[in-house]
Amino acid sequence: MNTVNVLSAHVQIAVHRMAADIIAAYLTCNDLRSEQASPILALVRMALQHAALHEARNDVLRLQGAGGSMRPPAVPILQSITPRYLICLEEGRQCRNLEHHLRTAHGLHPAEYRRKWDLPAFYPMRAAQHRLKHPGRKTSRPPRLVEATETSS
Fold first, then answer.
1. 77-133 in CATH: which number?
2. Torsion from C-alpha of 83, 85, 89, 92, nearest 10 degrees
3. Domain ranges of the chain
């Protein structure tokens, strides 16, 4: 089976662009003759096509395993993480704090969400810029020092 025929046109275009970007980055750090670049480009393209097919197969198996009742994510998982916001896979909404959104809008705990969408444990729940701005401390102020007062009896 030819992998190029199985992948949709937009996936093929994305694979070619990613392969070109990878090779361009590689060539900026390494000296190669033109005849050496072509086989490397073919290998990179083949690896990316294999990864795309693997991801598509996993999506199909995930849908079949749920009896066909599970819908696909609102956006591709890799596109759901940006520096400014995360995109909810349930509905496609952009959130700076995905954990808060999941609890209020969907009644989901982050662990349930990760399990439902087969996400790794390190999948972020807050956007990177939001994490930098709000590091998650319970209080931003130092603790108050209470002076002891002596009572004489």
1. 1.10.10.1550
2. -130
3. 3-65, 77-133
Q: How many residues can be counted in the chain?
A: 153
- Two structure tokens written together for 92: 């496609």
DSSP code string of 82-143: -SS-EE-TTT--EESBHHHHIIIII---HHHHHHHTT--TT--SB-HHHHHH----S-SSPP
Closest by alpha carbon to 95, among 127, 134, 135, 128? 127
SS (H, E, C) 55-88: HHHHHHHHHHHCCCCCCCCCCCHHHHECCCCEEC
Q: How many Å apart are CA 115 and CA 36, to the nearest integer?
A: 43
Report pLDDT digits (tens) over 25-66.
888 888 888 778 788 888 888 888 877 777 777 666 666 555
Kindly report the pTM of this predicted structure.
Answer: 0.47
Determine the Cα–Cα distance for residues 45 and 51; give it in Å rounded to an integer. Answer: 10
